[in-house]
Amino acid sequence: MPEPAMLKPLAIQPLQVAATEARTVAADLEEVSVSFGALQALKDITLSVAEGEFLTILGPSGCGKSTLLRVVSDLVPASAGKVLIFGKETEQARLAREFSFVFQDATLLPWRTAIENVRLPLEMGLKQSSTVPKSDLSPEELLDLVGLKGRENALPHELSGGMRQRVAIARALVCKPRLLLMDEPFGALDEITRDRLNEQILQIWQETKTTILFVTHSIPEAAFLGQRVLMLAAHPGRIHDIVEVDLPFPRRLKMRETPEFMEIASRLRSLLEAC
């Protein structure tokens, strides 16, 4: 099934992060380690992510990229160290709906339409609390934001893989999370669809000003999306380097053909080979 037309470029001012600017810390990890029995998945991770930042996470298989997101999201407990999300313990942040998670599989309920899947977090939240954070955009407007206007009543099996993933992104945004965790959300898609969604997630990020932690295996994707790239080494997972991506916003795919982009990608490849 062909993808629908993507969003028109938004009229957004370039978003730059000044190193000296005082900013709220979205995620603060201090000497975090995670072990599963005798296996140490992460070791001594110390990292600070500013509110509104787009951080991509890159590294070889088995370096703990997904585990890192699961520690931040309270899905996996830290064996040692401390994690704060907007100054809250991870459980408190989860209960306050400070973050949302987008997995590689869209995990939509097959019997619910696209719009019903997007509304699901609001419905579940209202069963637990009378006050549920809501996006400034309605579920219908969120589907429009991700380029699915007119597909509100489609069931998941009637949507392509890229469309289903966009429904998952709209669903993740419906409770207005301050932090969006994305674990290889485009990894199973074809290259053309993936490139289009790369541009679109940047547009959504600049529109919503949500902090994003984005795991990927793709060097071009990490360099294109991130303001910084966190490079993890494996066995055990640990910080190998953090690379600043000094490329202007808004970014377009043709930027990947520039010498500046190629230089950053080459540096990331060298770091990855050394991990």
Short structural summary:
The protein has 275 residues and is of the alpha/beta class. The protein has eight helices and ten strands. The chain has helices at 65-72, 90-95, 114-128, 139-145, 161-173, 191-208, 219-225, 259-274, and strands at 25-36, 39-50, 54-58, 80-85, 88-89, 99-102, 179-183, 211-215, 228-233, 238-244.
Mean pLDDT: 88
Write out the strand line-up for the largest beta sheet, numbering strands in chain order: 6-7-8-3-9-10
Rough shape? globular
Cα separation of the termini: 39 Å
Largest sheet: 6 strands, mixed
Q: Number of helix segments?
A: 8
Radius of gyration: 18 Å
Helix-strand topology string = EEEHEEHEHHHEHEHEEH
Q: Helicity level, as a percent range?
A: 25-40%
Number of DSSP strand runs: 10
Low-confidence stretches: 4-21
Q: What would you call the structural class?
A: alpha/beta
Strand content: 15-25%
Structural write-up:
By secondary structure, this protein is of the alpha/beta class. It contains eight helices and ten strands. It has helices spanning 65-72, 90-95, 114-128, 139-145, 161-173, 191-208, 219-225, 259-274, and strands at residues 25-36, 39-50, 54-58, 80-85, 88-89, 99-102, 179-183, 211-215, 228-233, 238-244. Strands 6-7-8-3-9-10 form a six-stranded mixed sheet, sandwiched between helices. Strands 2-1-4-5 form a four-stranded antiparallel sheet. α3 (114-128) packs across α4 (139-145), α3 (114-128) packs parallel to α5 (161-173) and α4 (139-145) packs across α5 (161-173). The longest helix has 18 residues, at 191-208. The protein is globular and about 45 Å long. Residues 4-21 have low confidence and may be disordered.
